[in-house]
User: Which sequence fits this backbone?
Protein backbone atom coordinates (compact mmCIF):
# COMPACT_ATOMS: atom_id res chain seq x y z
CA UNK A 1 0.00 0.00 0.00
CA UNK A 2 1.34 3.49 -0.90
CA UNK A 3 1.06 6.59 1.25
CA UNK A 4 1.77 10.22 0.32
CA UNK A 5 4.96 11.63 1.82
CA UNK A 6 6.02 15.29 1.82
CA UNK A 7 9.79 14.97 2.07
CA UNK A 8 11.49 17.72 4.11
CA UNK A 9 14.05 18.74 1.44
CA UNK A 10 11.24 19.40 -1.05
CA UNK A 11 9.27 21.49 1.44
CA UNK A 12 12.36 23.45 2.51
CA UNK A 13 13.01 24.29 -1.17
CA UNK A 14 9.37 25.37 -1.59
CA UNK A 15 9.52 27.58 1.52
CA UNK A 16 12.73 29.24 0.26
CA UNK A 17 11.10 29.81 -3.15
CA UNK A 18 8.21 31.50 -1.36
CA UNK A 19 10.62 33.86 0.41
CA UNK A 20 10.14 32.14 3.81
CA UNK A 21 13.79 31.31 4.55
CA UNK A 22 13.40 33.31 7.78
CA UNK A 23 10.96 30.67 9.11
CA UNK A 24 13.81 28.17 8.95
CA UNK A 25 16.75 30.28 10.09
CA UNK A 26 15.21 32.36 12.89
CA UNK A 27 16.90 35.51 14.16
CA UNK A 28 20.66 35.76 13.58
CA UNK A 29 21.73 36.58 17.20
CA UNK A 30 19.68 33.66 18.58
CA UNK A 31 21.09 31.36 15.90
CA UNK A 32 24.69 32.33 16.66
CA UNK A 33 24.14 31.75 20.38
CA UNK A 34 22.46 28.40 19.68
CA UNK A 35 25.36 27.02 17.61
CA UNK A 36 27.94 28.42 20.03
CA UNK A 37 26.37 26.46 22.91
CA UNK A 38 25.66 23.32 20.88
CA UNK A 39 29.26 23.10 19.65
CA UNK A 40 30.44 22.80 23.25
CA UNK A 41 28.65 19.43 23.50
CA UNK A 42 28.83 18.27 19.87
CA UNK A 43 32.40 18.64 18.65
CA UNK A 44 31.47 16.97 15.34
CA UNK A 45 29.56 20.17 14.50
CA UNK A 46 32.57 22.47 14.90
CA UNK A 47 32.56 23.30 11.16
CA UNK A 48 28.91 24.43 11.11
CA UNK A 49 28.63 28.01 9.88
CA UNK A 50 26.06 29.75 12.11
CA UNK A 51 25.26 32.23 9.30
CA UNK A 52 24.24 29.47 6.92
CA UNK A 53 22.93 26.66 9.14
CA UNK A 54 19.65 26.01 10.89
CA UNK A 55 18.74 23.31 13.46
CA UNK A 56 15.70 21.12 12.82
CA UNK A 57 13.71 18.69 14.95
CA UNK A 58 11.99 15.51 13.79
CA UNK A 59 9.04 14.38 15.84
CA UNK A 60 6.10 12.05 15.76
CA UNK A 61 2.96 11.36 17.67
CA UNK A 62 -0.01 9.09 17.47
CA UNK A 63 -3.32 10.85 16.85
CA UNK A 64 -6.84 10.04 15.67
CA UNK A 65 -7.52 10.90 12.01
CA UNK A 66 -10.56 9.71 10.04
CA UNK A 67 -11.59 7.82 13.20
CA UNK A 68 -8.53 5.60 13.25
CA UNK A 69 -5.25 5.57 15.16
CA UNK A 70 -2.70 7.31 12.96
CA UNK A 71 1.02 7.99 13.33
CA UNK A 72 1.97 11.50 12.22
CA UNK A 73 5.53 12.49 11.29
CA UNK A 74 6.52 16.16 11.41
CA UNK A 75 9.57 18.35 11.35
CA UNK A 76 10.10 21.85 12.63
CA UNK A 77 12.83 24.48 12.55
CA UNK A 78 13.97 24.87 16.15
CA UNK A 79 14.63 28.62 15.85
CA UNK A 80 11.43 29.43 13.97
CA UNK A 81 10.33 32.87 15.28
CA UNK A 82 6.68 31.72 15.20
CA UNK A 83 7.13 28.55 17.25
CA UNK A 84 3.79 28.94 19.04
CA UNK A 85 1.97 29.08 15.67
CA UNK A 86 1.69 25.47 14.55
CA UNK A 87 0.73 26.28 10.92
CA UNK A 88 3.88 28.36 10.48
CA UNK A 89 6.21 26.10 12.43
CA UNK A 90 5.10 22.43 12.22
CA UNK A 91 5.54 20.83 8.84
CA UNK A 92 3.94 17.49 8.02
CA UNK A 93 5.91 14.64 6.45
CA UNK A 94 3.41 11.79 6.51
CA UNK A 95 0.34 10.41 8.27
CA UNK A 96 0.01 6.66 8.26
CA UNK A 97 -2.72 4.55 9.92
CA UNK A 98 -1.01 2.79 12.82
CA UNK A 99 -2.12 -0.64 11.57
CA UNK A 100 -0.06 -0.15 8.35
CA UNK A 101 2.83 1.45 10.11
CA UNK A 102 6.12 0.19 8.63
CA UNK A 103 8.47 2.43 10.53
CA UNK A 104 11.95 1.72 9.25
CA UNK A 105 10.87 1.52 5.59
CA UNK A 106 9.37 5.03 5.72
CA UNK A 107 12.30 6.28 7.78
CA UNK A 108 14.79 5.31 5.06
CA UNK A 109 13.14 7.88 2.73
CA UNK A 110 12.90 10.52 5.45
CA UNK A 111 16.54 10.05 6.47
CA UNK A 112 17.65 10.32 2.84
CA UNK A 113 15.77 13.61 2.53
CA UNK A 114 17.23 14.97 5.79
CA UNK A 115 20.67 13.90 4.66
CA UNK A 116 20.31 16.04 1.53
CA UNK A 117 19.49 19.04 3.72
CA UNK A 118 22.50 18.59 5.99
CA UNK A 119 25.18 17.37 3.53
CA UNK A 120 24.33 19.14 0.27
CA UNK A 121 22.13 21.93 1.61
CA UNK A 122 19.95 24.24 -0.44
CA UNK A 123 21.62 26.66 -2.85
CA UNK A 124 19.90 30.06 -2.82
CA UNK A 125 20.55 32.70 -5.49
CA UNK A 126 21.59 36.02 -3.97
CA UNK A 127 19.67 38.24 -6.35
CA UNK A 128 16.34 36.41 -6.29
CA UNK A 129 16.46 34.47 -2.98
CA UNK A 130 15.11 31.51 -4.89
CA UNK A 131 16.48 27.98 -4.99
CA UNK A 132 18.95 27.68 -7.86
CA UNK A 133 21.35 24.71 -7.72
CA UNK A 134 23.40 26.09 -10.65
CA UNK A 135 23.97 29.62 -9.41
CA UNK A 136 27.54 30.71 -8.67
CA UNK A 137 26.40 33.95 -7.12
CA UNK A 138 24.59 32.53 -4.13
CA UNK A 139 24.81 30.89 -0.72
CA UNK A 140 24.28 27.30 0.38
CA UNK A 141 22.23 26.83 3.54
CA UNK A 142 22.47 23.61 5.55
CA UNK A 143 19.84 22.16 7.86
CA UNK A 144 20.76 19.71 10.63
CA UNK A 145 18.48 17.47 12.65
CA UNK A 146 19.36 18.31 16.24
CA UNK A 147 16.44 16.76 18.07
CA UNK A 148 14.28 13.63 17.75
CA UNK A 149 11.09 13.90 19.76
CA UNK A 150 7.82 12.12 20.17
CA UNK A 151 5.60 10.00 22.35
CA UNK A 152 6.95 6.72 23.77
CA UNK A 153 5.46 4.69 20.94
CA UNK A 154 7.11 6.85 18.28
CA UNK A 155 10.52 6.82 19.96
CA UNK A 156 10.39 3.06 20.50
CA UNK A 157 9.61 2.43 16.84
CA UNK A 158 11.83 5.06 15.26
CA UNK A 159 14.84 3.92 17.32
CA UNK A 160 14.07 0.15 17.40
CA UNK A 161 14.43 0.48 21.18
CA UNK A 162 15.10 -2.60 23.27
CA UNK A 163 15.33 -0.37 26.37
CA UNK A 164 12.07 1.56 26.78
CA UNK A 165 9.39 2.47 29.26
CA UNK A 166 7.65 -0.90 29.64
CA UNK A 167 10.79 -3.11 29.47
CA UNK A 168 13.01 -4.14 32.40
CA UNK A 169 15.57 -1.53 31.32
CA UNK A 170 13.48 1.60 30.99
CA UNK A 171 15.87 4.24 29.67
CA UNK A 172 17.56 4.52 26.24
CA UNK A 173 20.40 6.53 27.80
CA UNK A 174 21.36 4.44 30.83
CA UNK A 175 20.89 1.02 32.49
CA UNK A 176 18.22 2.10 35.00
CA UNK A 177 15.99 -0.92 35.56
CA UNK A 178 12.62 -1.73 37.05
CA UNK A 179 14.42 -3.98 39.49
CA UNK A 180 12.57 -7.15 38.44
CA UNK A 181 15.70 -8.86 37.10
CA UNK A 182 18.44 -6.32 37.78
CA UNK A 183 17.96 -5.18 41.36
CA UNK A 184 21.17 -3.10 41.79
CA UNK A 185 20.21 -0.80 38.87
CA UNK A 186 16.69 -0.17 40.15
CA UNK A 187 15.65 3.33 39.07
CA UNK A 188 13.94 3.96 42.40
CA UNK A 189 17.42 4.12 43.94
CA UNK A 190 17.83 7.90 43.87
CA UNK A 191 21.02 8.07 45.93
CA UNK A 192 23.93 10.09 44.55
CA UNK A 193 25.97 6.94 43.93
CA UNK A 194 23.13 4.80 42.50
CA UNK A 195 24.77 2.30 40.06
CA UNK A 196 22.60 3.34 37.07
CA UNK A 197 23.94 6.93 37.26
CA UNK A 198 27.45 5.89 36.15
CA UNK A 199 25.99 4.22 33.01
CA UNK A 200 24.46 7.45 31.66
CA UNK A 201 25.57 7.71 27.99
CA UNK A 202 28.43 5.29 28.71
CA UNK A 203 26.44 2.04 28.34
CA UNK A 204 25.67 0.04 25.18
CA UNK A 205 23.28 1.45 22.55
CA UNK A 206 19.58 0.83 23.31
CA UNK A 207 18.78 -1.31 20.24
CA UNK A 208 19.61 -4.71 18.79
CA UNK A 209 18.98 -3.68 15.17
CA UNK A 210 20.46 -0.34 14.16
CA UNK A 211 17.67 2.10 13.18
CA UNK A 212 17.66 4.08 9.92
CA UNK A 213 18.08 7.35 11.80
CA UNK A 214 21.71 6.36 12.58
CA UNK A 215 22.54 7.01 8.91
CA UNK A 216 22.12 10.74 9.54
CA UNK A 217 25.28 12.79 9.36
CA UNK A 218 26.38 13.74 12.88
CA UNK A 219 23.88 11.33 14.44
CA UNK A 220 24.21 11.20 18.20
CA UNK A 221 22.03 9.37 20.75
CA UNK A 222 22.04 12.60 22.78
CA UNK A 223 19.81 14.13 20.11
CA UNK A 224 16.91 12.03 21.36
CA UNK A 225 14.72 14.40 23.34
CA UNK A 226 12.47 13.32 26.17
CA UNK A 227 9.14 15.07 26.54
CA UNK A 228 8.49 16.15 30.12
CA UNK A 229 4.78 15.26 30.10
CA UNK A 230 5.50 11.75 28.84
CA UNK A 231 8.13 11.26 31.55
CA UNK A 232 5.69 12.44 34.21
CA UNK A 233 3.25 9.79 33.04
CA UNK A 234 5.49 6.95 34.24
CA UNK A 235 6.54 5.34 37.49
CA UNK A 236 6.80 7.19 40.77
CA UNK A 237 6.60 10.64 39.09
CA UNK A 238 3.00 9.84 38.06
CA UNK A 239 2.05 8.87 41.64
CA UNK A 240 3.80 11.89 43.11
CA UNK A 241 2.16 14.36 40.71
CA UNK A 242 -1.22 12.61 41.11
CA UNK A 243 -0.93 13.07 44.88
CA UNK A 244 -0.01 16.75 44.49
CA UNK A 245 -2.94 17.32 42.11
CA UNK A 246 -5.36 15.69 44.55
CA UNK A 247 -4.08 17.93 47.33
CA UNK A 248 -4.38 21.08 45.16
CA UNK A 249 -7.94 20.20 44.05
CA UNK A 250 -9.06 19.45 47.63
CA UNK A 251 -7.55 22.68 48.91
CA UNK A 252 -9.53 24.59 46.20
CA UNK A 253 -6.33 25.93 44.58
CA UNK A 254 -8.00 26.11 41.13
CA UNK A 255 -11.11 27.93 42.36
CA UNK A 256 -13.30 27.94 45.48
CA UNK A 257 -16.47 26.57 43.89
CA UNK A 258 -15.07 24.19 41.27
CA UNK A 259 -15.97 20.52 41.37
CA UNK A 260 -13.16 18.01 40.86
CA UNK A 261 -13.69 17.57 37.10
CA UNK A 262 -13.85 21.35 36.52
CA UNK A 263 -10.79 21.92 38.72
CA UNK A 264 -8.78 19.33 36.74
CA UNK A 265 -9.92 20.94 33.46
CA UNK A 266 -8.73 24.29 34.81
CA UNK A 267 -5.38 22.72 35.76
CA UNK A 268 -4.99 21.41 32.19
CA UNK A 269 -5.67 24.88 30.71
CA UNK A 270 -3.11 26.45 33.06
CA UNK A 271 -0.52 23.81 32.21
CA UNK A 272 -0.99 24.41 28.47
CA UNK A 273 -0.43 28.14 28.92
CA UNK A 274 2.66 27.62 31.07
CA UNK A 275 5.15 26.76 28.25
CA UNK A 276 3.69 29.50 26.02
CA UNK A 277 4.35 32.08 28.73
CA UNK A 278 8.00 31.01 28.86
ZN1 LIG B 1 18.51 7.08 32.10
Assistant:
Amino acid sequence: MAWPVLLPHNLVAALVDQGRLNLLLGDAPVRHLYWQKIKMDFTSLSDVDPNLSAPLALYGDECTAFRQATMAFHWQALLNPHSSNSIQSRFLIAMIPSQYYVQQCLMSYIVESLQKLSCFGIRVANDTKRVDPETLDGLTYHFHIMSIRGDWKFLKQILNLSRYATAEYICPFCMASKGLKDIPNNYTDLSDDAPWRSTHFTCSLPWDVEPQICRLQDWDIRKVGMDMLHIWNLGCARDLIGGCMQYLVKSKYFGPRLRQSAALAQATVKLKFWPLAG
In short: The pocket of zinc ion is lined by residues 171, 173-174, 176, 200 (CB under 6 Å). The longest helix spans residues 103-120.
